Amino acid sequence: MAARWWRGKPRVALRRTDLLLSKVRRKIGARPARPAMPIDYLQKILTAKVYDVAVESPLDEAVTLSRRLRNRVLLKREDEQSVFSFKLRGAYNKMAHLSVAERAKGVIAASAGNHAQGVALAAQRLSCVATIVMPVTTPNIKIAAVEARGAKVVLHGDSYSDAYDEAQRLQAKTGATFVHPYDDPDVIAGQGTIGMEILRQCQGPLDAIFVAVGGGGLISGIASYVKRVRPAVKVIGVQPVDSDAMTRSIAAGRRVRLSHVGLFADGVAVKQVGRETFRIARELVDEMITVDTDATCAAIKDVFEDTRSILEPAGALAVAGIKAWCETHRGEGRTYVAIACGANMNFDRLRFVAERAELGEAREAIFAVTIPERPGSFRAFCALLGKRSVTEFNYRYADATKAHLFVGVEVAGRKATAELLALFHKHGIEAYDLSDNEMAKLHVRHLVGGHAPAAEHELLYRFEFPERPGALLRFLDSMSAGWNISLFHYRNHGADYGRVLVGMQVPPTDKADFRRFLDRLGYTYVDESANPAYRMFLAS
Q: Strand runs (DSSP E) across 50-204, as ranges?
């Protein structure tokens, strides 16, 4: 009966309720409830307090890249801030708006790098105690940079999520103010000053601004300003293909939580975007683009060639996005801005970046090729390549009739790769393009010739795990003593995580136990047993 009554007389009932509440409020002196006012981000950005610590970073033209893309590419050089990242803007603006009493209790944050340095610098300038919770996988260079600014570092967990949970626990215990890396209006407004500077520095034609996206604070701030002042300028977000939480969330119309994220571009490795940043991005961002690791490495090289500066992977995402956009839209004479948002690169990661940059530029193609195992066949194959430069050639005798080659060739783009593959097929040569095959590029190229005829019931898996003391030993200790390791390849790429390729001889009767082992282990894994690169070069 109650439900039917509300459906039959809702307006009358609500009016009566409102009148009663008004009478009660008048008697007790309470003010009528008012709906929350929307945040005026334009005003917050115009009044943001960032320039005590930040500089108005230059907007430089990338001359070489512009010429190649036939569009004008401008780099907003946030890598030239004192902490080599834009993050100090939002952190300082948040902390500068705290009351004296709030600052006296200190601040706390969770971060794997750039946000931590921004909070530490802000605390140093504002004479405030800061505690930063960082994952134990954080490189020493970043820990040392935070400690050098006087902040206390607490190492906890393998991921940002673990560090965040610990920071929340400490915040509740101490009463310190939590400085969120992206989902806070003051942080968003601080980052939005970048958009204000861009429009002031670029008075002429401007078609689009490309922004790296992790949790969404940077793009939310920039879009909030740009869309109020010059709404015709597109704001386009760029994410890694394996850390695309915002891209998926906008497509789904709700915040999507990723089960895991890629760690190469660690500055944007966020499993779930913020509530406020999602609300803003959904309303104001024009488009989202995803790029792979090779494209990111190529973008790092592009910026280096124009500026002699080395961006971190997240810092180069916007440049990779512009290149992808130009390849898709084929326009010329446009003006694009890329936010070079960070340069906290670990030196030992450069080896991996240099190795993959050529693939990202499509200047190198990798092929798996089968030719007859007889005298003269290799010479004939090289003659077919003509004057093309061979960048890599791996081979080991394994079969009396067929020779399997792992070949790298210098090419002039993806079209040239397709033409070369067609040429092989035209001459009756079995060949596969492995240029986009992650396992081939990471592992197989270093293991060619590893056929093992006696490795029965072999399964091949690729794993990723946090690079911390004891991680590899834990991996090995977790394996059943009854499963023989028939292949093992581990290579440290200067990242915060390890990559392992493992062949294991698992009898069919142990398949269920093996599946339970994988789930219990808790590491990201990919079954590569059917990968053609494995079947050709490594399988029994």
A: 59-61, 72-77, 107-110, 130-134, 152-155, 177-178
